[in-house]
Queue: 2 jobs
Job 1
Amino acid sequence: MVHCDLLLTNALIVTMDEQFTIHQRGGVAIAADAIVSVGPEALSWEAAQTHDCGGRVVLPGLVNAHTHVPMSLLRGLADDLRLDVWLMGYMMPVEREFVSPEFVRLGTRLGCAEMIRSGITCFADMYYFEEAVAEATAEAGMRALCGQTVLRFPSPDARSYEEGLQRARTFIEQWKHHPLIVPAPAPHAPYTCTPEILRSCAELAAEFDVPLHIHLSETLLEVEESRQKHGMPGVPYMRKQGLFEAKVLAAHCVHVDEGEIRALKNFNAGVAHNPTSNLKLAAGVAPVARMRALGVNVGIGTDGAASNNDLDMFEETRLAALLAKGINGDPTAVPAREALAMATRIGASALHMAHLTGSLEVGKRADLLVLDLSGLHNVPAFARDPAGIYARIVYTAKSTDVVDVMCNGRWLMRDRRLQTIDEDAVMREAVERARRIDAFLGSREVSVLQKLVAVGGAIEQESFEVQVKARLEDDAHLLEALQGRELTVIRHSRYRQHDIYWSFEDAEQGRLRYRDDEFLDDRGEVTGERSRLTLTGHTREDRFGAVLLFRSRYLAPAAHSARFYREYFRPAAEHLVTKERRRWLVAYRGAEFYVHLDRLLEPAVNGFFLEVKSRTWSQRDARDKAAIIAELLALFGATPDTTLGDGYVELARASRPTSA
Ligand SMILES: [Zn+2]
């Protein structure tokens, strides 16, 4: 008689091996961390301990093919937003402020507790301070592919990408031989990495023979930008950077064409399909049925809890099966058995970890779960088709039906009680952490300025300028004066300026201007473009006769679209002003002035508008320049019009009040 440490008896064993073997009655024999026998023959093993499964189903532990486990702490923080507003407006600012090794450890414990309850024994992660994820995961007894993020901009754990790369290397060196953790570099995505980062990460992964975890072709926008910038979509661009020299796990692959799917197969790249996250962020639906038909290893992932919002693989697997049917108009697409294979063995292959986990087979690690299918929602059951068990598991079972979970031969949950994580303590700490994040976001929401700073890139630049405006019937007199000897034209340019002015309930917040300039050549053709965002104080600081002193407070290069800022700031009102501007920089009486001659296109107003202005730095300088501006105006034959405020917003407001 052969000996083992533990024998699971009285079980319906769904092995999820390549032949989809099911043992209606049998056992699983486990020695140390490995499975040594499966099926009826296991029952002949002599065991130090036995565990009666009570006729329940034994399944391989589920594989969550893509997540950011510490983001469980950001669950429900911001929902129903577009991807860029969600990511750049909320996730990244909060991460910059809060993500630390302690945050990551706590979030990992919370996420692991939830995943164990949902029968997950292995997951693929990508986050910052990945060594803290690895430590907390190993403590919880779970298996994971841990991807250390590398980005082209500063992140919570690296000031530069060089530092990020070094972090990834150190992390891999330290965790390479751990029994539960497979370390990996995780270049975040093609659009957040440079070609150099992508190549370096691929080389690093190849050097240590570890997988590489990346987001790929998640949104249509990403793929369109890749086509524009690189002349090719995501997969060939990755190939060009040598990414497939490594064992790739690519999350999403929503927008990939037939050729790209074949390439993924040829390079033996795994794909993580994240149905809830893709639906919630409206990224689209990955062509899973086609990928599977062509033999790509497609696993199923929850993605982070901030975009899901839970880590429930039963929900995810069911949705993966349903979504494929709906999108293909074919109820035979991704049947239950296939979906469950994606959640187990094929998922493990996608992670390049199939030699360790994903099925109940001799030689693999003892990663499994015991599932109770006797609940009300799973009654009755039919014996006619033995394969009906897959439908019962995928379409009917819930994560709450998971009774016991084992990973690497160690019980993580017994009789629905977690063995390795103090759930109450973790929940208490998570609640406390959420309170602090709430306070941070609350303080940020009180002012437009704080929100602008939070979204990054704002430059505090207080500038004062004196300016005067006038209406002109025609431009002849002005153009003639500019040719005159009294003044010198230093520069001349011409452009079309689109201004969007946003104002807020509380007028004290000032006004935000999104400005988009199209530079024009002599023939009026567009030669270039530039966008800027300025937060301007609401009040005029001072006046010298008709000349007004204005203060502009904050300037930010507009890194995002007008749509992004509109959705992020949610202004109370919006006004558009479009003008064609001729601009001269002139020297007059020892000082420099800008002369703007505008034609208003939106709102459409006849005639010309003249603006003369100059930067200033002191009250005295402002007074002196105001006097010179008054002279210049006389020279141009113009009469000041103080009803024209800053930016023609008053005209826009009068012509067509709009509200955002
Ligand atoms: Zn992700």
Job 2
Amino acid sequence: MEMVDLKSQYLKIKPEIDMAIHRVLSNGAFINGPDVKDFQNNLEKYLGVKHVIPCANGTDALQIAMMGLGLMPGDEVITASFTYVATAEVIALLGLVPVLVEAKEFDFTIDPIEIEKAITPKTRAIVPVHLFGQGADMNAIMEIAQKYNLFVIEDTAQALGAKYQLSDGANVSLGTIGDIGCTSFFPSKNLGCFGDGGALFTNNDKLAAAIRMIANHGQKVRYYHDVIGVNSRLDTLQAAILDVKLKYLNNYAEARIHVADTYDNALKSIEGLITPKRIENGTHVFHQYTLRILNGKRDALRKHLEERGIPSMVYYPLPLHFQKAFENERYPIGSMPISERLSSEVLSLPIHTEMLQETQDFIVENVKSFFRL
Ligand SMILES: Cc1ncc(COP(=O)(O)O)c(C=O)c1O
């Protein structure tokens, strides 16, 4: 058993995928071929956003977003401590100052109250992460951003396809609310390719043009470099694969939600375990199904499952302010008690689009048997 069954997902749409791959192989346009533009247009329609700019991976997308917004060394950028490293890594790489803040216990996403407390005259941007498949508190975050004149970059790597209801009642796609949205097409993501890939989204024409130029060596016209850029492209092959899979993204989300519902029903009454909470004003596309295991029993449950051939993962074993690379006297031990506790409690169970009922029954039975011991 694996956390994610990518092979079965491929086999279900093999003829379409193989045809797309062979089309690219036979026309030979491996870089910036027509499939890149087709996928870009289709993703723009799907998300309801003016511009999608494909790039090489989700980490690059975040970096290019910060370059596109003109953030300068010394500028402070606020993001979550309880997240994947990529978000904070690129802030530091650009000479910006990552300012890590606490999570909400309810859904593990960045706490807007803590964001506001962390704002200084040097703060320029906020990077909320839509962790595990549902939205951070974007209504509150956008209000803060407006009040203090800050940019917002949404890290949508784990929540592509999820919807969010804004304060005015509009239902929009995550990643299209802030100035820029970023995503990853890493194979295990909700929309995953067969290698690395990523994209940026924006409704701002000027920003889109700047981002496109930065992702392409800072050039609009070949060999004329107006700004310092990077080389970050989505391969034509990956775009062709993604364009096929995009048609199934809503079905994939439904399948994941069905698995999550089944886990919820089977596990919610177990004492010592908390099933994932869902926000009311948005969908959860369950990139991860993440339990909290109380009373210091998380690692024992993980071992119990492993001994029975069931994988599980800890996303994430350390909050970023505990990572050596981000050590800073600003964040002593105990400064973010929720993130610190979550790191010792969270356990993600296998979830994917091809989960068989009998496999899930087996997982559930073994989680239950641990708590019966
Ligand atoms: C929240 C988050 N941000 C950024 C990334 C980086 O994406 P990539 O691996 O495509 O660089 C990931 C992917 O693992 C992620 O989960």
